[in-house]
Amino acid sequence: MTASKYSIEITQAAAAAAEEKLAENPVALDVSEPFALADVFLILSAKNERQAAAISDAVEEKLQEMGVKAKYREGLAAARWILLDFGDLVVHVMNEQEREYYSLERLWRDCPVVPLSN
């Protein structure tokens, strides 16, 4: 099973919105095979908590324009690791230190990378 065309489309839109807020090191992984609850994980880095909040706001705003609402949000108060669950897409906006420590890319290394540009 692979990520749907729709999942890839919203992932690319979310990544573009994040990059406008200077998100760093965007990586999208097709987790549809091992993880039945979502198709794609989008992992982004932020230099500080304020930037992480701005990135997550931009992603939510862009996807809302596309008719996609977040089903769940976590970590907004501390803003060191913000998780936005859009169903088919789960966005992780992480402080650089948390991203290095938890190393989600290593944990999901068997999953194919989703291209972030058309």
CATH class: Alpha Beta
Rounded mean pLDDT score: 93
Molecular shape? globular
With helices defined by DSSP (H or I, 4 residues minimum), what is the helix count? 4
Reported for the largest beta sheet, the result is:
5 strands, mixed
Give me the side-by-side strand order of the main sheet: 1-2-5-4-3
- Strand percentage lies at 15-25%
Supply the CATH architecture: 2-Layer Sandwich
Structural class: alpha+beta
- What is the CA-atom radius of gyration, in angstroms? 13 Å
Order of helices and strands: HEEHEEEHH
Q: How many angstroms does the end-to-end distance come to?
A: 21 Å
CATH topology: Beta Polymerase, domain 2
Helix content: 25-40%
CATH superfamily: Beta Polymerase, domain 2
Query: What is the oligomer described by this structure?
Result: single chain
Domain module count = 1
List the helices and strands and how they pair.
Elements: H1 5-20, E1 24-30, E2 40-46, H2 49-65, E3 72-74, E4 81-85, E5 89-95, H3 96-102, H4 104-107
Parallel strand pairs: 2-5
Antiparallel strand pairs: 1-2, 3-4, 4-5
